[in-house]
Design goal:
38% of the residues lie in helices and 15% in strands. With 382 residues, the protein is α/β, with parallel strands linked by helices. The chain has 2 domains: 242 residues, 3-Layer(aba) Sandwich (Aspartate Aminotransferase, domain 2), CATH 3.40.640; 131 residues, Aspartate Aminotransferase, domain 1. The strands form 2 sheets. Strands 1-7-6-5-4-2-3 form a 7-stranded mixed β-sheet, sandwiched between helices. Helix 2 packs parallel to helix 10, helix 3 crosses helix 4 and helix 11 runs parallel beside helix 15. It is globular, with a radius of gyration of 21 Å. The two termini are 32 Å apart.
Length: 382
């Protein structure tokens, strides 16, 4: 699919004005923790870097620009960003969560926040009737991943937004898998967009971070307060590196998607592969929705091998280009075994219900040559 011209331009230029003091085209990194004040509470906009820092501020403006949002907030991890959203809720609130959600997200909800009188309903949101049935007067947040992790369900964001119209309820979309290049949930009706910026935004397996983007100024101030009061912020150096990585996001996403298509189409025709999950394939159950709400299908491909777990381990041992590791969205290709790795914390019965079994593998397709990646998979399957 086609990436908009503005995405290339925005990724390169967002919040990157030349330094007024030196003319440097790269913004300086401000490592100061504190700032001199002219008089008590009289300063130049910065008093302590947990509250605000010039390097983080520039990165947050860039985040907002690429997501086409009014406001961006950076956090020390994706889970820290998630925690900030949950901390807006009052005891007794209920949250509807897509059932096929990142294992760490579900773990945090079940083990850390459920004990504070918050109730989480895990629902198959690929059917909007399930969302409608779960809504009640206590629902204060609907939490969507689209595409989901690891089964790549595509959830109708516009449809969910219509169900929530007029209700006292925030609507969060985790846009990590699609990236701001391929999907704009705020334009589709979401009130909060979440990213694990460790993934495609960082893109190089060397940073941990999270981000939230919103349009509502009141909601922004509430989340900004949690960021300040709880203090889960990234360092100035991390913010600088994330900002730098944004410059190449659009061009990287183009290559990720190109390679993912080649991998998905190869796997779908291989006799040793049972099923392939990739929204770009016409065989995907929500392919039509994906085409409507996404500008591209990104670089994650999941599939199930035929055989048994021993066959899976043999396959993994033979791979050379795809490295066995958690995380995703980086320039090198990775393979993950969700049942044993990223989703091991999901209750066993829930994993079985979802289909996260010993045969499921999730590929994060990198930016190497597509021919090399397909050849690696071919050799391992043989």
């Amino acid at each position: 699919m086609t990436i908009r011209s503005r995405d290339f331009d925005t990724c390169v230029h967002a919040a990157k004005d030349s330094d007024p003091l030196t003319g440097a085209v790269v913004k300086p990194i401000h490592t100061a923790s504190t700032y001199e004040q002219k008089a008590p509470a009289e300063h130049l906009g910065y008093d302590y870097s947990r509250a605000d820092n010039p390097t983080r501020e520039a990165y947050e403006k860039a985040l907002a620009a690429v997501e086409v949002a009014q406001h961006g907030l950076a956090f020390s991890s994706g889970l820290a960003a998630e925690q900030a959203v949950i901390q807006l809720l009052d005891p007794g609130a209920e949250v509807i969560v897509c059932d096929d959600v990142y294992g760490g997200t579900g773990r945090m909800f079940r083990t850390l926040f459920a004990k504070y009188d918050l109730k989480f309903h895990f629902v198959d949101m690929s059917n909007l009737d399930n969302v409608a049935a779960a809504l009640n007067e206590k629902t204060r947040l609907v939490w969507v991943e689209s595409p989901t992790n690891p089964l790549l369900k595509v959830i109708d964001v516009v449809g969910v937004a219509k169900l929530l119209k007029g209700k006292d309820c925030q609507f969060l979309v985790d846009n990590t898998f699609a990236s701001p290049v391929f999907q704009s949930p705020l334009e589709l009706g979401a009130s909060i967009v979440l990213h694990s910026s460790s993934k495609y935004i960082g893109g190089h397996s060397d940073l941990i971070g999270g981000a939230l983007m919103v349009n509502d100024p009141k909601l922004f101030q509430s989340l900004k307060y949690v960021q300040f009061a709880a203090g889960a912020i990234p360092s100035p150096m991390d913010c600088h590196l994330f900002h730098r990585s944004l410059s190449t996001l659009a061009i990287r996403m183009k290559k990720h998607e190109e390679n993912a298509f080649a991998v998905a189409e190869f796997l779908e025709t291989h006799p040793k592969v049972d099923v392939v999950f990739y929204p770009g394939l016409e065989s995907h159950p929500q392919h039509a929705i994906a085409k409507e709400q996404m500008r591209g299908f990104s670089g994650i491909v999941s599939f199930k091998l035929k055989g048994n777990y021993e066959d899976v381990k043999t396959f993994l041992a033979k791979l050379r280009m795809f490295r066995l590791a958690e995380s995703l969205g980086c320039v090198e290709s990775l393979v993950n075994h969700p049942e044993k790795m990223t989703h091991a914390s999901v209750p066993e019965k829930m994993r079985e219900h979802l289909g996260i079994d010993s045969q499921l593998l999730r590929l994060s397709v990198g930016i190497e040559s597509s021919e090399s990646l397909v050849s690696d998979l071919q050799n391992a399957l043989n």
